[in-house]
Amino acid sequence: MDQITRQLSETGIVPVIRLSRPERDAVPLAKALCGGGVAVAEVTFRAAGAATAIRLMKEAFPDMTVGAGTILTTAQIDEALMAGAQFIVTPGMDPDLVRYCQQKKLPIYPGCTTPTDYHAAYRLGLTVLKFFPAEQSGGLDKIKAMGAPFSMFKVMPTGGISLKNLGDYIRNPLVAACGGSYMVSADLIDRQQWAEITDLCRQSTAIIREARSGPASGS
Fold this sequence. Notes:
Elements (H helix, E strand, L loop, with lengths): L2 H9 L1 E5 L4 H14 L4 E5 L5 H11 L4 E5 L4 H10 L4 E3 L4 H9 L4 E3 L4 H9 L4 E4 L7 H9 L6 E4 L8 H6 L6 E3 L5 H5 L3 H20 L6
């Protein structure tokens, strides 16, 4: 496991962030996340200004691990890299994007939920996948079923993760970390509720610590 993946795994939760006003919100949001013990972020390219947000976060908090999500093209990978992104997340399995990141020695976590996706990932030498959309694709039951023939993979479930089910996911040994937007919702960011975001991060890290200190759920 590379250093970036290890950092994401150790944190256990990766906030998935969509910023429409990065100049206003990127730095205070990064401060709120770090203050809650979650010094990682996936900034989605679904919003214009994602690269600006990544750059501002990394400039203000150099030790924070920041990546780019919803990446669909090699041009976006280049833009994210120029901004300081340290990992790439794609919504689907695109072998060309995986190879492009591998050439640049940049961790990439493609969205995978089917045996075909997993097999393609295996052929590409990947070890950690984004399981997306998690809840809509069968959740933990599907992750466990996929882990039978593909036990070499760890996954980062994203989609439908909340405080209510975070512990259940984290307890499973196939799960490296979870992606979530509940602590960085558009409403919280628009209203600049930084203290509430910090509190949600603290609640999340407490759940993760408790889940990892207890017995693991079967895979």
